[in-house]
């Protein structure tokens, strides 16, 4: 069985494991106050060209989204988000559990637009019953989106302009940030992304780490007391160094970007396998997640030897499914998938 | 200026004021443990043919919806609701503030159907990521709905059947219950409604009281400790007798039903005024709220002398608006409205 | 049976009932946007000598405390409070239900001191684990306290100085404010209280109204968006005018102060009744609540004809209990109590 | 510099690192549904002699306490806890952030007693204002306590009896469980602990793992839907196998118990070092945490070469501090500490 279900099927990139092994018996203080975390923070600040940014390490994506959003909003505010956004769909109500509504905007490609945000806020402000309606307090987007798509520099710039005009902090969920930055056609660098939002995070769990997400707070107004809420939400590891050690390794010699590019290239092969075989795609994704639409019968055959993630039913006999590549995807496994898909067509 | 904006424009029905005046200097214990509340509870149990029901009095609708829903759900559960439901639209995020997602189902007439609920729950249960998705934990409907429409007995029966099959308590928001029960064509009596749900409330604020909503808990499993959460949510009045006194009066000599019928009849005249003048309606409402769609220019003229509530833009030059009747609406004011609308057409 | 259990045994002062009756059929818009609320706001601003203050009306004390505290704090902050404070003891966990810890300071007389607050904050800031400990974010006191005692002008000034020095908003729970302001020996006027805190409320429920509390926000930084959270917490009455009408009456011709003074004077008679009979007092209260300590046997006899509130056991055969006076307490009832207590001693 | 500050100064026990390295490139599904987690669950069930128990893996202690307590309580309930309990002191208000009060009971040694719980619940039930007071809904204890002390079998049995009599689930925080079970004089085995509570957790972070806590749910009534709330609270790792791999190793060949015993033995040497030198102890701890009380001057000298954790000031010139041993503590470092302490006395 070969798995393409997700980008968190294996442990960590060997360079990270090596550093974890090498430092295992060193004594450090806890909760992220150690020298490894300090070093990793500097490397991330440098990579973002943001020496003033605050950098904090958390364990996973749901925890990170919840902590950031709860830290930004006031009790009567909600977060604007694409209806397909991870916080709306797949976090078991974590945002609502902190008291905040996820206010959804429609989308077909996982993205929301500047005019959508502007129109919503204007409608809210001008409604007679404005104080009876949850106040939009920030905007959440993911880059890449849950469908693997990307905002262009023009789109993100326009969106951030609207956010600033209305005083809405913009938060970018970068659980798969590397796969976006390194994608064919992507026109946003890491420093550009950093400077086009108020706070974002650099995903580690899905990009080579055992676990870990690095929150980068760009807007000084959002920095105060963040470590208090991290602790409150269970987000400060006793052995916080584990996060510092891993991010230090990821941001040494461009490892984060190199392994992201490898995954994207493997994903392009996977896309070609399905497209060449005549399968349409749910999303036009230039990143590591690919979503072919296949007949259920053929999926059943393929599923005997290959793992994928079921996404959604598209009609009574077809389904959209997800195949992911990652830093760990091998050419050998992709070749095996190619052979299997081609065999379906014979 | 004559107001038709809402059904809470005046104080209380004179019969209630009389009883409040009459009892004003009587000493009673607080927090709803007094004899007036006890008497009102019995009258409501009788009116519902539900001698075993628990009856509690709260001050307003948002407080009531929040308290009931927070009492029923577990932390990882959400409440299924029409996208137009009051808890989703006009309670400033009160439900989310208790940690729960409002899970919306599409609707055009304010109602949701048994198959919609069934399909959603089946989808949730069978999704690979079920534990990553908020668990539906109860169903909320309003009767009448926010558009003034009504569930038929067949519809409510089928919905409640599905709810019971899936273990989802059904909660009916009856902020305007009287206007529904007494509507032309309504085929549900108060006792029938009571026995086709797990918990509901009988609205007083919009049906003749100064304020007050009577929660009726039919399902024994939901009764325990409800007064604790009422207190926690600020829902137990020190002078709780004020609620008992008013509900006692409302449920004496069918006052609640008589004033509701009056409002419906006034509303039918209002509907006829607009329909006769050729205006379409947003909703086909048999209850006290009527929603004509009018050209903005004519609304501006009418608005000089008549108050209404803006509902929504229907096209660049037309809007849907709300005209309400209540226990206090006079024939004189309705006649004035008729003359004004007819004048628009000349 | 004559009740002295509390100060909310009757309805409203007749002047308020008169005004409610008189305005009953007037049409107004809802949710506190009416002209009665506007007029009452001005009268309260004038009474406080605080023309810039924001004034909002809520229904009850628990709702008011919860709404104010939730509006002020950030998620990782708690509220400093005497261990005997109402929010810690008798609100069924309402504050915690909004996510905030009530951080208690010891007290014997219901008051906390400036040095206590300073010491706590300094300890918190200097603890190695500061980020693992709830951050104190505001200070709550009650005036009068739950034991009927009062802060002197010197004490409140010193406390507010410390609060400002540490950036902690000071909130005064004035559920019984009138009884404090008019007490023998009280050296704080209403305007002085207003200017020695960031936000406070003027209690109506326990001082002559059917219900209602007037929140006065002095600190401009706390004003923004308060009506959103009022709505979210169920604190905006549809017929908000009921609050405006009552507070308008209370702040016309010094009614609020006159009825408060009456209650205090009745309470002094009650205190003398018990002290003359040789009973010690739990608290040295100059306000409308008096707390004699009595043998359980004598309480049982007295309880046959007089209602009081049980407070606490002081030893195996004695209990401290509460007798309250209010605007409605009559000389006749106090005389009856005197006779009954004197009879116990024969 | 040699650190004795805590038991989470190093990475993981080498046996765990070996297994993490060995399995690093194996593909598994995520979120704890993998075969390593399955195997670890069985080993823990066996170690607890509780084949029916549910076992779930979370990342850290605050997350675990919060998730368990939020899963057990209803909104109007609080958790009874020693005033020194970790959830009350050092979790930044995590419990309150889920809406629940931590109801504290006094203690001098970190433990609470069966009579204390009984008395509190009886007082709550019989208070006139019971519905105005947070309802006690469960009991939290730690084993060992925050002071390193242990409940005896008799004490825990009596406590659990009271809990069951009053319907209060008992939750044991076992962040340092191994150090308790293996302590001199401890008369409770792991299976006995498991069967004397409703839910507990076996700490990994402080007992040899990189991170990880194993929740063991003994009471069937508490099992339902626990994975939903784990996800909601950010407690399900994408690479959940990391937890399974580590707990599998810890529960192979009694590793968990062997390394715990090593730590306790090192701690006894540390205790003897201080006691022999004439320093009193804050707590009489038979486990891996030792708390000497020392003059501040001598602490300053010792602190130049040895790390410890500041605990509390005991008088103007003395402080109680914590020295911890762990699986990683070496004889060499303990000898160095002995020499340094003896040198203070010369």
Task: Briefly say what this structure is.
The structure is a homotetramer of 346-residue chains. The first copy, chain A, is of the alpha/beta class and 346 residues long.
Mind sketching the topology for me?
The structure is a homotetramer of 346-residue chains.
Chain A: E1 2-3, H1 14-22, H2 35-47, E2 54-58, H3 61-72, E3 77-82, H4 86-89, H5 94-97, E4 102-105, H6 114-126, E5 135-142, H7 153-165, E6 170-173, H8 177-181, H9 190-195, E7 199-203, E8 213-217, H10 226-232, H11 241-250, H12 255-276, E9 289-290, E10 293-295, H13 296-302, E11 306-307, E12 309-315, E13 318-324, H14 331-344
Parallel strand pairs in A: 1-11, 3-4, 3-5, 5-6, 6-7
Antiparallel strand pairs in A: 2-8, 7-8, 9-13, 10-13, 12-13
InterPro entries (chains A, B, C, D): ArAA_b-elim_lyase/Thr_aldolase, PyrdxlP-dep_Trfase, PyrdxlP-dep_Trfase_major, PyrdxlP-dep_Trfase_small
Keywords (chains A, B, C, D): Lyase, Pyridoxal phosphate
Protein name (chains A, B, C, D): Amino acid lyase
């Amino acid at each position: 069985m070969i798995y393409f279900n997700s980008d968190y099927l294996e442990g960590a990139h060997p360079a990270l494991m090596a550093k974890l092994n090498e430092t295992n018996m060193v004594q450090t203080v806890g909760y992220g106050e150690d020298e490894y975390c300090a070093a990793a923070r500097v490397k991330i600040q440098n990579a973002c060209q943001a020496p003033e940014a605050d950098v904090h390490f958390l364990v996973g994506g749901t925890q990170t989204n919840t902590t950031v959003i709860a830290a930004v909003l006031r009790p009567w505010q909600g977060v604007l988000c694409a209806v397909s956004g991870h916080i709306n769909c797949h976090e078991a109500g974590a945002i609502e559990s902190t008291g905040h509504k996820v206010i959804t905007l429609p989308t077909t490609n996982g993205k929301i637009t500047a005019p959508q945000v502007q129109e919503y806020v204007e409608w809210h402000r001008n409604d007679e019953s404005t104080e009876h309606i949850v106040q939009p307090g920030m905007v959440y987007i993911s880059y890449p989106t849950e469908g693997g798509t990307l905002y262009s520099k023009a789109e993100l710039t326009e969106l951030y302009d609207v956010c600033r005009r209305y005083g809405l902090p913009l938060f970018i969920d970068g659980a798969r940030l590397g796969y976006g930055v390194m994608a064919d056609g992507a026109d946003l660098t890491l420093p550009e992304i950093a400077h086009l939002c108020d706070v974002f995070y650099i995903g580690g769990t899905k990009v080579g780490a055992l676990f870990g997400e690095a929150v980068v707070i760009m807007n000084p107004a959002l920095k105060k007391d963040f470590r208090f809420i991290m602790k409150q939400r269970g987000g400060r590891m006793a052995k916080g160094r584990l996060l510092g050690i891993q991010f230090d390794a990821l941001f040494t010699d461009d490892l984060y970007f190199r392994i992201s590019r490898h995954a994207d290239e493997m994903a392009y092969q996977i896309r070609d396998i399905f497209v060449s075989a005549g399968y349409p795609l749910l999303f036009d994704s230039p990143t590591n997640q690919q979503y072919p639409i296949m007949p259920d019968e053929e999926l059943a055959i393929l599923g005997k030897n290959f793992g994928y993630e079921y996404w959604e039913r598209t009609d009574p006999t077809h389904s959209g499914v997800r195949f992911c590549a990652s830093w760990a995807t091998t050419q050998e496994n992709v070749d095996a998938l190619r052979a299997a898909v081609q065999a379906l067509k014979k």
